[in-house]
């Protein structure tokens, strides 16, 4: 069927609006990349658009030499990897029993867990608890209070519920215990959803800000979020840099250093995101249909 | 297929219940439960310790907390903390700001994902759709430190991209981040920029369940694209739109800490201080634990009430969450 004139106009406008919206998501990031690679003068005069002017790597070399960005990167990595591993183990341990029909108190436990999503204790009581458990100041405070996310738990539980029971019954007749059933039947069948949930946990840990802000006091142990936030907010860091190395600093503006910090933080995400996007979307859909 | 499935499941549930009633069945069920209880025990400990125990900490909302006496030793003051919170114009302003910013986020923000989903649904070239989706979902994965950093740098007076452009066009810059009106606009817009694309996924999924033959029939009858969207797409989306809108209202007390914290500055603090940031400053910053806890309890209770009301309304139309 040939498109009518009205349809042609409609499609034209549609593509135009979508292209504009999509570019609005990309261009600010490209602008930041350009700033991080541009010279001092060009930035101050506002000449930098989407392409670096007076190309220089100085912002990045200063960032690596004079700030703790390497350490913060490592901290972010540790927080993310250990945190996600713990999350996955305990989310699976929670989801499997709750998905079994013969499990005692299944309904009561599910309700008690969902209630913690609706009513939370708030900042101060949580902080006092973490303090009395000796978690303040170490990464335990980032990992333990969020060990199981109720949302991810419900997604995984509903997936486990849909695995045909016959498979397990057969295994049970062959003499397999619950642990073997989990490891050899349930988990291999759930690889896609487990990957999705692990990604959600991983992104949340990589991006964690508030918890690091309140629980971690030692600047050596900050993650990238808090370090970059400090760079964006404070002028003091910039003057410190100026004192350390006035010559190099004349070639830099705070803008280029800040941009470089932002890029270092989002680069790992930008690299993996296009390949993993479909898992994220799948997870969002499972969650919203059931949630 | 679905109803058969349900019937089969019901039958098997009945069977297992009958089996459970006999003594042999009870023993069998206990044996099947043993390993499950072992693996679930750490989960019970986790939820009690980290989710339920802190709720007892709410008692300090009714106490004058001091570090020496601790949670249970500090003296009771009844509702004095609340009297202070609800008579003080500063704290009343903070409650007002919280409601205002989140209401704006819900009301102004909710049409954007719907529009994006409708537009994406009409795209015929799959490479374009793929690219547009990839880019539109991207901001969701940047945290507020990054988005806030982008915003602060784009709108900065001396070197920001926006003000450079403005200066070239009109000859003068505008302090966007330091005027209350433009700060609120930027706050709401940055939330839409970060979240609209990702939220469109739910509506895109709802659109796939609309019967394509409806569009064909409408096309035969001479309905143009615009009419098809108005009379087929929009009504098909309506249940999801209403559900998401109600859910948004349920979260109205919940302005995320991060977004406000990274965007606010002392000049606009009159509109930019919300409960979560105030709790952080007054509670952890100046150690006034009782005031911050009292505010936190107020926030949690209102939040719970709203969610329950909203779910009640949604349930009446058959779309409740539980």
Give a verbal description of the structure.
The complex is a heterodimer of chains A (291) and B (322). With 291 residues, chain A is mostly helical. Helices cover 76% and strands 0% of the residues of chain A. Chain A starts with a helix and ends with a helix. Chain B is mainly alpha-helical and 322 residues long. Chain B is 76% helix and 0% strand. Chain B contains 16 helices and no strands. In chain B, helix 10 packs across helix 12 (225-250) and helix 15 runs antiparallel to helix 16. The longest helix of chain B has 34 residues, at 23-56. Chain B is flat and about 70 Å long. The two termini of chain B are 24 Å apart. Classes of the chains: A mainly alpha (291), B mainly alpha (322). At the A-B interface, helix 1, helix 4, helix 5, helix 6 and helix 13 of A face helix 1, helix 2, helix 6, helix 7 and helix 8 of B.
What is this structure, in a nutshell?
The complex is a heterodimer of chains A (291) and B (322). With 291 residues, chain A is an all-alpha fold.
Secondary structure blueprint with pairings:
The complex is a heterodimer of chains A (291) and B (322).
Chain A: H1 5-36, H2 40-44, H3 58-66, H4 69-99, H5 106-118, H6 123-132, H7 140-143, H8 150-161, H9 165-173, H10 178-189, H11 191-206, H12 210-215, H13 224-233, H14 236-244, H15 246-250, H16 254-290
Helix pairs in contact in A: 1-16, 3-16, 4-8, 4-11, 8-11, 8-16, 9-10, 11-16, 13-16
Chain B: H1 2-21, H2 23-56, H3 70-73, H4 80-87, H5 89-109, H6 111-121, H7 126-137, H8 144-154, H9 161-170, H10 180-207, H11 212-220, H12 225-250, H13 257-263, H14 269-272, H15 275-285, H16 289-316
Helix pairs in contact in B: 1-2, 4-16, 5-10, 6-10, 8-13, 10-12, 12-16, 15-16
């Amino acid at each position: 069927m040939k498109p009518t004139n009205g349809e042609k106009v409609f499609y034209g406008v549609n593509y135009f609006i979508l292209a504009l919206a999509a570019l609005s998501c990309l261009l600010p990031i490209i602008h930041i990349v350009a700033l991080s690679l541009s010279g001092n003068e060009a930035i101050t005069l506002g000449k930098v658009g989407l392409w670096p002017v007076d190309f220089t790597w100085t912002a990045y070399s200063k960032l690596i030499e004079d700030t703790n960005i390497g350490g913060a990167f490592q901290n972010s990595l540790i927080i993310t990897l250990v945190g996600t591993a713990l999350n996955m183990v305990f989310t699976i341990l929670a989801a499997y029993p709750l998905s079994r029909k013969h499990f005692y108190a299944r309904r009561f436990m599910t309700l008690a867990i969902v209630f913690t999503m609706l009513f939370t204790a708030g900042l101060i009581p949580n902080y006092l608890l973490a303090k009395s458990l000796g978690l303040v100041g170490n990464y335990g405070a980032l990992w333990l209070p969020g060990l199981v996310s109720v949302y991810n738990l419900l997604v995984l539980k509903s997936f486990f519920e849909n695995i045909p029971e016959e498979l397990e019954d057969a295994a049970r007749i062959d003499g397999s215990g619950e642990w073997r059933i989990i490891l050899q039947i349930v988990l291999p069948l759930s690889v896609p959803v487990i990957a999705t949930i692990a990604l959600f946990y991983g992104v949340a840990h990589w991006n964690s800000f508030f918890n690091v802000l309140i629980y971690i006091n030692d600047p050596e142990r900050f993650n990238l979020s808090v370090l970059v936030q400090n760079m964006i907010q404070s002028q003091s860091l910039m003057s410190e840099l100026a004192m350390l190395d006035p010559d190099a600093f004349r070639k830099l503006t705070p803008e280029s250093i800040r941009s470089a910090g932002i890029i270092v933080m989002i680069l790992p995400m930008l690299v993996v995101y296009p390949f993993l996007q479909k898992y994220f979307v799948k997870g969002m859909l499972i969650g919203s249909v059931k949630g | 297929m679905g109803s058969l499935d349900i019937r089969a499941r019901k039958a098997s549930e009945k069977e297992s219940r009958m089996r459970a009633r006999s003594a042999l069945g009870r023993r069998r069920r206990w044996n099947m439960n043993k390993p499950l209880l072992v693996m679930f025990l750490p989960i019970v400990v986790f939820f009690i310790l980290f989710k339920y125990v802190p709720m007892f900490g709410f008692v300090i909302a009714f106490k004058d907390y001091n570090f020496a006496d601790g949670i249970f030793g500090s003296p009771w003051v009844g509702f004095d903390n609340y009297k202070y919170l609800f008579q003080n114009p500063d704290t009343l302003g903070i409650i007002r700001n919280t409601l205002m910013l989140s209401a704006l986020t819900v009301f102004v923000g909710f049409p954007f994902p719907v529009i994006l989903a409708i537009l994406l649904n009409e795209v015929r070239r799959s490479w374009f759709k793929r690219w547009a989706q990839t880019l539109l979902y991207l901001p969701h994965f940047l945290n507020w430190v990054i988005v806030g950093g982008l915003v602060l740098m784009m709108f900065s007076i001396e070197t920001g991209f926006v003000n450079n452009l403005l200066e070239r066009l009109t000859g003068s810059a505008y302090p966007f981040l330091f005027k209350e009106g433009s700060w609120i606009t930027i706050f709401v817009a940055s939330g839409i920029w970060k979240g609209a694309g990702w939220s469109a996924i739910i509506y895109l999924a709802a659109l796939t369940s609309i019967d394509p033959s409806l569009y064909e029939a409408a096309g035969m009858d001479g309905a143009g694209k615009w009419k098809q969207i108005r009379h087929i797409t929009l009504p098909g989306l309506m249940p999801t739109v209403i559900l998401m809108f109600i859910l948004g209202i349920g979260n109205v007390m919940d302005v995320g800490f991060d977004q406000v914290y990274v965007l606010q500055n002392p000049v606009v603090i009159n509109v930019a201080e919300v409960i979560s940031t105030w709790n952080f400053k007054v509670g952890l910053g100046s150690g006034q634990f009782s005031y911050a806890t009292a505010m936190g309890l107020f926030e949690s209770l209102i939040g719970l009430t709203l969610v329950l009301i909203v779910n009640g309304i949604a349930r009446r139309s058959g779309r409740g969450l539980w």
